[in-house]
Amino acid sequence: MMDETPVQVLKENGRKAQSKSYFWLIRIGEDGLNPIVLYNYTPTRAGTNAEEFLRGVESGFYLMADGFQGYNKVKNVNRCTCWAHIRRYLLEAIPRGHDKDYTNPAVQRVLYCDKLFEYERTYKEKNLSFKQIQNRRLKDQKPVIEGFLLWVKQLDPGSNGKLKKAKTYILNRENYLMTYLEDGRCSLSNNLSENSIRPVTVGQKNWLFSDSSDGATANAMYLTIVEMAKAYDLNLYEYLKFLLEHRPNENMTDEELDYLAPWSIDVQEQCSIK
Fold this sequence. Notes:
Helices cover 49% and strands 13% of the residues. By secondary structure, the protein is an alpha/beta fold. It has three domains: 1-82 and 190-231, Nucleotidyltransferase, domain 5 (2-Layer Sandwich), CATH 3.30.420; 83-175; 233-274, no CATH class. Helix 2 packs antiparallel against helix 3, helix 2 (83-92) packs antiparallel against helix 5 and helix 3 packs antiparallel against helix 4 (130-154). It is globular. The two termini are 30 Å apart.
């Protein structure tokens, strides 16, 4: 999963202080593996940044991201699209006061999206395996999406500019609408990433900006440490104290660094939330 959000860095070579820079989030999805939450800073939003961050990842993996076209730079990947974003575009196309008007085409198609999320909740409540989820999605959700897509293609939005925008958004992602059906480990939405990028957007209201590129890079590093600790249910104070006491440095071996990682047995024993 990936997401990105603009930040302000005052002193970047060859750029004005008002220029937009970006923090990127890369995190693991809902595949049951140990959580990984990583942040990175870049001066621009170029899609080559996403490609560089994912360099070395095994070909054919699934990538959940929003509609930003820069993610198309990532090669040999199975792209998933976020159904929460699709639902949001349709909600914005509903005229004020008509959210319960079930004759309204946008309202009708929001119900299609709601049905998909309802199925997902049911699978989790039943604690289905990933293979079972894949099979149930093909049976339950594929017909819903096929009907939804048929309606979108036939839709005449008329003078409703927001509905036209929603139609364009959906059709531009037609090839990705059903990718998540291929593997039960894939997610229906990018909500996990949006939740993980929120500390950046909320934090900016307090720190406002980074003075330099080095400061922005350090900020991304510290955010990674903090959010990883939270993902592993660690006492943040105790974990930061643990790291400072052991002073990680670039000369450490992989084994020594692994000892400091939030998933290590020693860290779990000494820093977990009691």
